[in-house]
Amino acid sequence: MSRKIFIKTFGCQMNEYDSNRIYDSVKKIGYTKTDRYEDASCYLLNTCHIRDKAKEKVYHEIGRVKKRFRSKKKPLVIITGCVAQAENQEMLKREPYIDLVIGPQAYHKINDKILNYTEKQKIEETEFDAESKFNYLSRIKNQSSSSSSFLTVQEGCDKFCHFCVVPFTRGPEYSRPFDQIINEAKNLADQGTKELILLGQNVNAYNNDGKKLSHLILEIEKINQIKRIRYTTSHPKDMTDDLVDVYKNTEKLMPLVHLPVQSGSNKVLNLMNRKHTIKEYLNIFEKLKKINKSIEFSSDFIIGYPGEKTKDFNETLDLIREIQFINSYSYIFSPRPGTVAENLKLIDKKISLKRLEKIQNELFKYQMEKNKSLENKIIKVLIENQTKDKTKLFGRSEYMMPVIINGNINCVGKILPIKINKSNRSTLFGEVINTSNQKVA
Questions:
Q1: For residues 104 and 18, is the Cβ–Cβ distance under 8 A?
Q2: pLDDT tens, 136-194?
Q3: pLDDT tier, 52 (very low <50, low <70, confident <90, very high otherwise)
Q4: Fewer C-beta within 10 Å: the chain N or C terminus?
Q5: Helix (H) and strand (E) counts for the chain?
Q6: 109 to each of 46, 72, 156, 314, 350, how far by Cα in Å?
């Protein structure tokens, strides 16, 4: 009889990819997926350490599970991901209900750890061994059948930004073998993937035997079934000319560049140890716009970083106004254990909140303007799935904007011309149209 596993995923796209690959692995030892954690014989929580209170979210979730299983047989409880890597033994000491703690570079060991687990054991596996992990996973078919699929090509980071835990939770930069990635891409294409999103903590730092991200994109371009290519997340320091030039030579690479800048102030960037300047960032922007005016940028911003003055904040506003990002993420600085910035003196929270509100109003303005400009126009949309209530279809534009339409489930997996009827800040709403005599925007 098969056993059931419930997997809950927090955080980034890479965690989503990892969760899918963990499931591909545990299927080999008889587990099937369940969406009801109450039915699970194994409860796995894949964690993220980027956002505030990540650790406490884990203990909150475990408390919920303990309550539900109070009168039932306890499931095997596994914590994976970046919180598992950062906290490891501490988690096992603080919460006896947890059985296994497995870091993100040790997923190739998960089947063995489950099979050999005995009651009252406490197991922690957090060695950095990305090469063994991906060699193992490459032998297990990625069974994602989504029209849009994630594909991790690079992990880890060598940048050591002072606010970031990634070097400590994901380890040093590791680029997967080129052929291994292409084989997985072809496999996903054969299963119905139309869009590939290439993932990495510093995805544009990818370098395997001289093959870079630009080479990966151009090789994936040759796969007929793949119609769209994206990559995230990039670092400005690794936005090299060969990658910029790919935008001249590809039809499938989408015109949205997500390039986190974090601050518009060179002083703050230096305090963050970001290793790039605003001039360098604007140079990338100008090069890409020269190649294709339709390219748009999105970004990440940390507001209220220790040492940020009013002048620095205003420089961030100036940068936003100059580039007019169409979709960005912005947060108040929150210290992470083990980082250089952990013990820096914080800016008064009221000041940070006011700055964040001002930044977000500015960012949202450009997002609204872009969406409004698409009303009554026809755009190409990849239809990904039905909405949860099964009444409409969900897709994304070339700029990753969510689009809701009426339509038949047979539309899923297709790139269709959609007339946009209305919009709000976060979503476009439209209808499928016959474009025999109409142009697509």
A1: yes
A2: 888 888 888 799 999 999 999 999 999 999 999 899 999 999 999 999 999 999 999 99
A3: low
A4: N
A5: 14, 21
A6: 15, 28, 19, 49, 46
Residues 290 and 423 in one domain: no
CB 265 within 8 A of CB 316: yes
CB atoms within 10 A of CB 50: 17
CB 412 within 8 A of CB 427: no
Number of domains in the chain: 3
CA–CA dist 302, 330 (Å, integer): 6
DSSP per position, 81-104? EHHHHHHTHHHHHH-TT--EEE-T
Say which residues have a Cβ less than 8 Å from residue 317's Cβ, sequence separation at least 6: 264, 358, 359, 362
- pLDDT, averaged across the chain: 93
- Using the 3D structure, point to which of 112, 129, 146 is the last residue of a domain: 129
Domain range for 259 is: 133-372
Same domain, 296 and 395: no
pTM: 0.91
